[in-house]
Write a structure and sequence with these properties.
The complex is a heterodimer of chains A (404) and B (272).
Chain A: E1 21-22, E2 25-26, H1 34-49, H2 52-66, E3 72-74, H3 76-82, E4 86-91, H4 101-114, E5 119-124, H5 128-140, E6 143-149, H6 150-155, H7 157-165, E7 169-173, H8 180-193, E8 198-201, H9 211-219, H10 221-234, E9 241-245, H11 250-256, E10 266-274, H12 284-287, E11 289-293, E12 296-300, H13 325-332, E13 336-342, H14 343-357, H15 363-379, E14 384-389, H16 397-403
Parallel strand pairs in A: 4-14, 5-6, 5-8, 6-7, 9-10, 9-14, 10-13
Antiparallel strand pairs in A: 1-2, 3-4, 11-12
Helix pairs in contact in A: 2-4, 3-14, 4-5, 4-9, 5-7, 9-11, 10-11, 14-15
Chain B: H1 3-14, E1 18-24, H2 33-42, E2 47-51, H3 62-73, H4 78-91, E3 96-99, H5 102-108, H6 110-119, E4 124-126, H7 136-144, E5 148-153, H8 159-168, E6 172-176, H9 190-200, E7 205-209, H10 215-221, E8 227-230, H11 232-243, H12 249-265
Parallel strand pairs in B: 1-2, 1-8, 2-3, 3-4, 4-5, 5-6, 6-7, 7-8
Helix pairs in contact in B: 2-12, 6-7, 11-12
Classes of the chains: A alpha/beta (404), B alpha/beta (272).
Bound molecules: pyridoxal-5'-phosphate (PLP).
Chain lengths: 404, 272
């Protein structure tokens, strides 16, 4: 086992293949206009990822601008309260802008700059990815347009204000569900119309190849740090379980990826069950079927005739009918377990973490918190659990207050 | 020789440009689609592109997006597209293609989709979100059921890639005129691009589409091609007609006929 936390142990697990497929999932189902654009991105990224200069720029920014490494905080009161395994929180909520999303936007903006792109577009659900994109655009002086569903603009007004203050233009997506799915459609339409000067910063491990792989690579710093920090704190590199919430799946893949070959590490994902699996929800893996959404084959919520269904979650960041192709693959390989968590359970999760640890988590993160009591109990006192505290709850205070 | 190949060969012999018209199945309402297809057939359309509505049509501008939403709000399904196609085929020999996004086809099952399409008298399929690299799931089934598979090229497609697409495509190669969505305005040096494409596409007919609104647009763009395709302009025309409560269906269909004639011949009069 390597002691260098920057080298992921990928000897055995090596998805995706050269064509961007994770088993039967992934690929690039895009209009022809975007195909040459993706080819250009693929080769630019292939060069950048082995360029020490690029790596240095990325690492320097993570350290000096994002505030990495983020702490791995031992949750002593939560551990006592639950009476089972020792629980650690990987503190992505302490990243600049308040969530893990910034790791990825830093990587992609460097790539955009390297490719000479002058205009940045993004989609956002909770607004965290939009804020992270607007932030790096301000930092690098690039034009920024963020597509956001008009319902999410209502739910996440604070983040809209932040994006505008940062100099971004927020464009409402008014079709369909008026949430992340439609914001993504609008961003892709913009990209189809401006393929040459525009770089599309995708906010999760979704979309056509090479995005799921590239976004994963930019987030795997979370897992790499976790390995090194665990070794320091517990004298072991691997925990017994890693828990994360899954919308598109970027924070989960980021913390899991360096552990995929450690077969004794359980990987648990929490997806949004909204009002319950028989009501309105966003539980893609629990209730979805294989299909193509936003340029990749994965698993998605759809009706009997293949029309995309509208997802629901109290948390705007999980309110998406699709999921990254790598998650569908990990599920099929039985390498990760995914659990539906309802809105109500997530709201309890917010209170649990707030009142035991003084950490108000994002509603997305709170879905992962909900899995902790059961898992801590099952694994017992000798075990170590890490959960990815993907973001802080400031943006959700209005929603949380409304439901308390 | 497929019905499409034959049509393009006949037109070439006559020195005529082919006109393809796109209409979403179930638009402006499920009862109106077939009469509109008949009307454009009478007006001289050379092939029909029947759209299978999808909830998230990524490459479409507003007119076609809205037509899709409108059709879906009537509960229109894939089977309805086969029914429309079969009814059209009973009356006409004009080639008909199905156009749609990959997901509903996957859900239906590629093999079953091709079988039903073929039984309904469909000649080919266009799936704009399936580049040739991802097309394996349908190409074998399409071949087994004698369906042509049309692929698209765009202004930023390289020479080498255009040649590769030409080898894989059948029926025709669809040259998207603009870097943009359906219904966008024409701009840029379309002429140089189509000239380049004309020299590279040697196995198939070459048709141009996206953004064509008038006979003049059509004639200008099809200088280097075997013909042209119009979608959004017809959809907009139909939306206006069917949203005008004072018109009778006969008046609407007469207007569709003259719209199509003007597009193809530059005049509303019957062709000589
Ligand atoms: C704090 C936080 N966690 C998680 C997510 C979900 O995204 P992903 O599944 O890609 O980590 C979001 C999305 O906006 C978020 O803001």
């Amino acid at each position: 086992m390597t002691n260098n936390p920057n080298i992921a142990s990928t000897e055995r697990y090596d998805a995706p293949d050269a064509t961007g497929h994770f088993g039967t999932y992934g690929g690039a189902f895009v209009p022809e206009i975007l195909y040459p654009v993706l080819e250009e991105l693929k080769s630019a990224y292939a060069e950048a990822r082995v360029d020490p200069e690029f790596d240095k720029q990325y690492r320097d920014l993570l350290r000096e601008y994002v505030g990495r490494p983020t702490p791995l905080s031992f949750c002593d009161r939560l551990t006592t309260e639950l009476g089972g395994a020792k629980i650690y929180a990987k503190r992505e909520d302490l990243c600049h802008t308040g969530a893990h999303k910034i790791n990825n936007t830093i990587g992609q903006i460097l790539l955009a700059q390297r490719m000479g792109k002058t205009r940045i577009i993004a989609e956002t659900g909770a607004g965290q990815h939009g804020v992270a994109t607007a932030t790096v655009c301000a930092k690098f002086g690039l034009d920024c347009i963020v597509y956001m569903g008009s319902e999410d603009i209502e739910r996440q007004r604070l983040n809209v204000e932040r994006m505008e203050l940062l100099g971004a233009e927020v464009r409402p997506a008014t079709s369909g569900s008026q949430t992340l799915k439609d914001a993504t459609n609008e961003a892709i339409r913009d990209w189809v119309s401006n393929p040459i000067d525009t770089f599309y910063i995708i906010g999760s491990v979704v979309g056509p190849h090479p995005y799921p792989m590239m976004v994963r690579d930019f987030h795997r710093v979370i897992g790499n740090e976790t390995r090194a920090q665990l070794l320091e704190k517990e004298g072991r590199e691997t925990p017994d379980a890693i828990v994360a919430c899954v919308g598109g799946g970027s924070n989960a893949i980021g913390i899991w990826y360096p552990f995929i070959n450690d077969k004794d590490v359980q990987l648990h994902g929490a997806e949004a069950a909204g009002e319950g699996l028989n009501g309105r929800h966003a539980a893609t893996l629990a209730k979805g079927t294989p299909g193509v959404l936003h340029g990749a084959m994965s698993v998605m919520l759809q009706d009997h005739s293949g029309q995309v269904e509208i997802a629901h979650s109290v948390s705007a960041g999980l309110d998406y009918p699709g999921i990254g192709p790598e998650h569908a693959h990990l599920r099929d390989l039985d390498r990760a377990q995914y659990h539906p968590v309802t809105d109500e359970e997530a709201l309890h999760g917010v209170e649990l973490l707030s009142q035991t640890e003084g950490i108000i988590p994002a509603l997305e993160t709170a879905h992962a918190v909900h899995l902790l009591p059961t898992l801590a109990d099952q694994l017992g006192e000798d075990a170590v659990i890490v959960f990815n505290c993907s973001g802080r709850g400031d943006k959700d205070m209005e929603t949380i207050a409304k439901h308390r | 020789m497929s019905r499409l190949d034959k049509t393009f060969a006949d037109l070439r012999d006559r020195g005529e440009k082919a006109m393809g018209l796109f209409l979403t199945n179930g638009f402006p309402n499920p009862d109106a689609t077939l009469p509109i297809l008949r009307a454009i057939d009478e007006a001289g359309v050379d092939f029909v592109e029947l759209g299978m509505p999808f909830s998230d049509p990524l490459a479409e501008g507003l007119p076609i997006q809205r037509s899709s939403e409108r059709a879906l709000s009537h509960g229109v399904t894939m089977d309805d597209a086969f029914e429309t196609a079969a009814a059209f085929r009973e009356e006409s020999d004009t080639p008909l293609l199905l156009m749609g996004y990959v997901n509903p086809v996957l859900k239906y099952g590629a093999e079953r989709f091709c079988e039903r399409a073929s039984e309904a008298g469909v000649d080919g399929v266009i799936l704009p979100d399936v580049p040739p690299e991802e097309a394996r799931f349908i190409t074998d089934a399409a071949q087994r059921h004698d369906l042509d598979i049309v692929f698209l090229i765009a202004p930023n497609t390289s020479d080498e890639r255009i040649q590769r697409i030409d080898k894989l495509a059948s029926g025709f190669v669809y040259a998207v005129s603009v870097t943009g969505l359906t219904g966008s305005s024409l701009s840029g040096d379309v002429d140089a691009y189509l000239h380049r494409a004309r020299n590279l596409v040697t196995d198939n007919a070459l048709l141009v589409g996206f953004g064509i609104k008038t006979h003049e647009d059509a004639m200008e763009l099809s200088q280097h091609t075997d013909g042209f395709i119009v979608g959004s302009a017809l959809i907009n025309h139909c939306a206006d007609l069917w949203d005008a409560p004072s018109l009778s269906d006969e008046e609407r269909l007469a207007s569709v006929r003259s719209f199509a004639r003007k597009l193809k011949y530059g005049t509303e009069a019957e062709p000589a």
